[in-house]
């Protein structure tokens, strides 16, 4: 007797998409490799601008006023942050319409071309103000691509990951981010030692951007050979009438929830991962070389912690991790800032612990927020909400920390960090548990009360 496809026995014999995903195939690993390589290069290129800002200021702006030139360079850096939300919205929508892989190929191409443009544009002495304008154009392009790349890569990695290990796989995103920053920092140190001050001012900084563009060709090849996610391809086959979509009100509330969950660790990243060495040098009198070595060692430890926290979130859930991160940040961050003195070991300890707390939320973050949006609006929702949070709370953190410290009220900044961390706790109490859910059946991200809540959360276990 034949069994119809819709019979219970046939359904029992046919593995579901989720069961298949528990055993990743070679194509999924190749796709993960392509995503990680792109994230490393993206943050390598993005960080080069900050590392070589002094040389960029002398090349693209009027040398007659060195302070003004540096401020103008930093202003262009800020413009890149402001462009990120727009890039997240534009490329996120494109990823929802044309596919995640397509956008990841486009964004890495834009980042690489913009890096090459920065390396090749003539200086202020050759073409005057047009040099500054072209730098602004290149940085705007990088900001747009960066906003799209970050959010869409979160979605891509989460959709190719096995559901039971989605937190672990998503830790690869910030592993790559941290590694990219470390490589850019290391390149800055090696280039300075190899070329000397005169060589760096003349051509050394250009070589770094050319290297970023050349590496982009390798990443471009890796991404073109990667696979599209099954969630997107299967979703495209669904009739439009049955596709799960969010209303404008639902999209706004979900985006606000993402900002609540993200703002604490967005701020923490720019404090502990990028600004801590500069703070130790300028405010505590630490030797510059020692500070950067201590920072690189702390970031190396953070790489290991990211993997551990990501795996743990697959066992205990996302909600306990984000709440624990918020509590730990409130308790530890201010005392850690007081620990930093002119001794390099103090920076290593403070930055290691600070980044360890940050990693509790960051490791699982790509998976967590991807689990809050339905497939057909996931990339746009993740990319735009994340970019807004980074622009508002991440990019402003170093400036606020410096302003509070120079005003003699350094503790005021840590109150601000505590407020953001408490918002993460609030978000953790509002969001439902999402670990292991089917990304193809996402509905409301908020916890429900009563019997519906019990049934909903039980389904995710």
Write a brief structural summary.
This protein is an all-alpha fold and 461 residues long.
Describe this structure as you would to a colleague:
The protein is mainly α and 461 residues long. Mean pLDDT is 83; it is low at 1-22 and 451-461. The longest helix has 59 residues, at 166-224. The chain has helices at residues 8-13, 17-21, 26-51, 53-60, 66-98, 100-120, 124-127, 129-160, 166-224, 230-236, 248-284, 288-316, 318-339, 344-362, 365-370, 375-394, 397-406, 410-430, 451-458. The protein has 2 domains: 25-232, Growth Hormone, Chain: A; 247-461, MFS general substrate transporter like domains (Growth Hormone, Chain: A).
- Element order, helices and strands? HHHHHHHHHHHHHHHHHHH
CATH topology of the largest domain: Growth Hormone, Chain: A
Query: Distance N terminus to C terminus?
Result: 37 Å
**How many distinct folded domains?**
2
Number of alpha- plus pi-helical segments? 19
What is the CATH class designation of the largest domain? Mainly Alpha
Let me know the CATH homologous superfamily of the largest domain: MFS general substrate transporter like domains
Write the layout of secondary structure elements.
Elements: H1 8-13, H2 17-21, H3 26-51, H4 53-60, H5 66-98, H6 100-120, H7 124-127, H8 129-160, H9 166-224, H10 230-236, H11 248-284, H12 288-316, H13 318-339, H14 344-362, H15 365-370, H16 375-394, H17 397-406, H18 410-430, H19 451-458
Helix pairs in contact: 3-6, 3-8, 3-9, 4-5, 5-6, 5-8, 5-16, 6-8, 6-9, 8-9, 8-16, 9-12, 11-12, 11-14, 11-16, 11-17, 11-18, 12-13, 12-14, 13-14, 13-18, 17-18
């Amino acid at each position: 007797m034949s069994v119809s496809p819709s019979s219970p026995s046939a359904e029992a014999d046919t593995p579901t998409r989720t069961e298949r995903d528990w055993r990743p195939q070679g194509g999924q690993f190749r796709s993960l490799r392509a995503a990680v390589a792109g994230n490393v290069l993206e943050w390598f290129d993005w960080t080069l601008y900050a590392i070589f800002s002094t040389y960029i200021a002398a090349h693209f702006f009027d040398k007659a006023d060195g302070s003004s030139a540096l401020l103008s360079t930093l202003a262009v850096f800020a413009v890149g942050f402001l462009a990120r939300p727009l890039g997240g919205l534009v490329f996120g929508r494109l990823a929802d319409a044309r596919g995640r892989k397509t956008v990841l190929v486009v964004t890495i191409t834009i980042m690489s071309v913009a890096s090459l443009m920065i390396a090749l544009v003539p200086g202020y002495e050759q073409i005057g103000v047009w040099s500054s304008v072209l730098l602004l154009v290149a940085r705007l392009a990088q900001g747009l691509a960066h906003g799209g790349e970050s959010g869409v890569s979160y979605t891509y990695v989460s959709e190719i990951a096995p559901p039971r290990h989605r937190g672990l796989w998503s830790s690869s995103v910030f592993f790559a981010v941290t590694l990219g920053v470390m490589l850019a920092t290391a390149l800055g140190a090696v280039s300075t030692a190899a070329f000397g001050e005169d060589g760096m001012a003349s051509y050394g900084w250009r070589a770094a951007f050319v290297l970023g563009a050349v590496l982009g060709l390798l990443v471009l090849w890796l991404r073109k050979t990667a696979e599209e996610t099954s969630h997107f391809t299967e979703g495209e086959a669904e009739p439009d009438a049955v596709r799960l979509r969010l209303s404008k009100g639902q999209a706004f509330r979900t985006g606000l929830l993402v900002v609540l969950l993200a703002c604490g660790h967005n701020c923490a990243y720019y404090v502990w991962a990028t600004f801590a060495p500069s703070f130790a040098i300028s405010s505590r009198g630490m030797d510059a070389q020692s500070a950067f070595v201590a920072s690189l060692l702390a970031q190396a430890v953070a790489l290991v912690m990211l993997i551990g926290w990501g795996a743990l979130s697959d066992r205990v859930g996302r909600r306990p991790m984000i709440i624990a991160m918020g509590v730990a940040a409130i308790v530890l961050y201010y005392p850690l800032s007081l620990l930093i003195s002119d001794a390099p070991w103090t920076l290593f300890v403070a930055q290691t612990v600070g980044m360890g707390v940050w990693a509790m939320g960051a490791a699982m973050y790509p998976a967590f927020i991807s689990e809050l949006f339905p497939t057909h609006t996931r990339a746009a929702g993740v990319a735009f909400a994340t970019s807004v949070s980074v622009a508002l709370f991440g990019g402003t953190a170093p400036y606020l920390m410096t302003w509070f410290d120079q005003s003699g009220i350094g503790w005021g900044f840590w109150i601000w960090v505590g407020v953001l961390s408490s918002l993460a706790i609030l978000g953790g109490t509002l969001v439902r548990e999402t670990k292991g859910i089917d990304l193809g059946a996402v509905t409301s991200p908020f916890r429900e009360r009563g019997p519906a809540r019990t049934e909903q959360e039980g389904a995710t276990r």
